[in-house]
Amino acid sequence: MNPLESVLSISDLWMDYGGNYVLRGIDLKAGPGQIIGYIGPNGAGKSTTVKIMLGLVQGYRGTVKLFGTNIAEEGTNYKRRIGYVPETADLYDVLTAREYLMFMGELYGMEAGAAENKAMRLAGLFGLDKAFDSRISSYSKGMKQKILLISSLLHNPDLLFLDEPLSGLDANSVMIVKEIMARLAAQGKTIFYSSHIMDVVEKISSRIVLINGGQIVADGSFEDLRTKSQEGTLEQIFNQLTGFSDHEEIADSFVSIVKEG
Ligand SMILES: Nc1ncnc2c1ncn2[C@@H]1O[C@H](COP(=O)(O)OP(=O)(O)OP(=O)(O)O)[C@@H](O)[C@H]1O
Fold first, then answer.
1. Yes or no: is domain 3-254 CATH 3.30.1180.10?
2. What DSSP character marks residue 86?
3. Which ligand 1 atom minimizes the distance to the CA of 45?
4. Does the keyword Nucleotide-binding apply (predicted)?
5. Is any ligand 1 atom within 6 A of the Cβ of residue 22?
6. Which residue puts its alpha carbon closest to atom 28 of ligand 1?
7. For the segment 113-124, what is each residue's pLDDT rounded down to a tens digit?
8. What is the pTM of this model?
9. CA–CA separation, 8 and 115 (whole Å)
């Protein structure tokens, strides 16, 4: 198999909800060591693509292969090699971090003691040692996000789906997580990174895939995209490729309505 398709291969992926097409022929292949910035406007179809790959959404047309296996034909074994940080997570927040992470580790097939030990050391590196036995419901937004990141990585997955992984993190933690991602990619992990924070995507992605209206409208390194679009920043490229130039007009109208007596 071509190493550049060996982790993930999506061919002609279509998905509709009651006749409303949200994915229109997505073709995407990825290999080890890539950090793919998967971006697009709200409702473009990013989460739907990711949820299909995770086996959470059925009823699509096309072929999705992970690690060379068609996910429609295999059981759930391939999921052991996947980690996922969802945009909004329902953490079982009556549990403590220790209980939650042990539970997650066991779901991924880890032995309880091994999961506990690894979770405790990872939480310590995120400064969560003192809170490790407190209920997650008492955690701040950033602390919860750190737990999600740990739980996505506990089983050492080869493919990571991260949806706004830096959400709620302070500047120091953001730096740590960016470094972690770069190191994981250097070890051959594949990272699928969805975010609306364009300057971070621009910096950390080795490849950027822009989806609009359920179709891929750009795929390449930031430098490739910049050369093609003749724009300076990823934010400008994003606006150009999604045909958006009305921000000032919309802001004017918004503020004038706000000002109404
Ligand atoms: N279960 C569902 N039933 C009906 N429509 C859905 C369902 N899930 C998603 N959609 C629609 O599919 C389209 C794509 O949604 P999706 O969540 O994939 O977008 P997204 O690119 O992840 O957006 P965002 O940036 O807002 O997270 C949207 O129009 C959404 O309303």
1. no
2. -
3. 18
4. yes
5. yes
6. 43
7. 999 999 999 999
8. 0.91
9. 27
